[in-house]
Amino acid sequence: MNFGPQTSQQDSFAILDAAVDAGVNFVDTANQYGGRLGVGATETLLGAWLAQDRARRDRIVLASKVYEPMSDDVNDRGLSARHIQMACDASLRRLRVDHIDLYQMHHIDRAAPIEEIWQAMDRLISQGKITYVGGSNFPGWSIARASEKAISAQRLGLVSSSTSTT
């Protein structure tokens, strides 16, 4: 999240190159990261780095996140099916890739039914836009709930998640 707002493009590219050369193969960002440069700036920077050498895409597991507000528009945030689809499409454009390996829900959205979230994620998987679904900053009870809903619908469910205390 510091690539762009805290670290110049040149320095960010050098860090990414050194990391990949050292064997790092996981690059994680979020659609909202960008700080003073604006939402999406970090994904845009990563997209420029990936575009310099298309072979880089095959060497990394690319992860991004969805949830945070992308504008003042009430529909441009959260985990509604509409926002998930629109946010993923926008992330793909900024990243200049055809798919995201791990698409993570950045936070729990108590206003969006988990069934609606899974429907949106299933659609993205079937469209080939994402490979796996993860969670970030989820309380333990929410990870369990999401997993139970996925299992009951014979879905793979969350392949990764981090917990929070909320």
Write structural notes for this entry.
There is one protein chain. This protein has 166 residues and is of the alpha/beta class. The chain has one domain (9-163): TIM Barrel, CATH 3.20.20. It is built from six helices and five strands; from the N terminus they run αβααβαβαβαβ. It has helices at 9-21, 41-52, 55-59, 81-95, 114-126, 140-152, and strands at 26-28, 61-66, 100-105, 130-138, 158-163. The protein has a five-stranded parallel beta sheet. Helix 4 (81-95) links the parallel strand 2 and strand 3. Helix 2 (41-52) packs across helix 4 and helix 4 packs parallel to helix 5. The longest helix is centred in the middle third of the chain and has 15 residues, at 81-95. It is globular, with a radius of gyration of 16 Å. It starts with 8 loop residues before the first helix and ends with a strand. The relative contact order is 0.12. The model has no long low-confidence stretch (mean pLDDT 92).
**Helical segment tally?**
6
Taking the sheet with the most strands, its summary is: 5 strands, parallel
Compressed to H and E, one letter per element, the order equals HEHHEHEHEHE
**Rg (CA only):** 16 Å
CATH topology call: TIM Barrel
How many strand units? 5
Categorize the overall geometry. Answer: globular
CATH class: Alpha Beta
The N- and C-terminal alpha carbons lie at a distance of: 22 Å
Structural domain tally: 1
Strand content: 15-25%
Mean pLDDT across every amino acid position: 92
Strand order of the largest sheet: 1-2-3-4-5
What CATH architecture would you give?
Alpha-Beta Barrel
Structural class: alpha/beta
Uncertain spans, ≥5 residues at pLDDT below 50?
none
Helix content: 40-55%
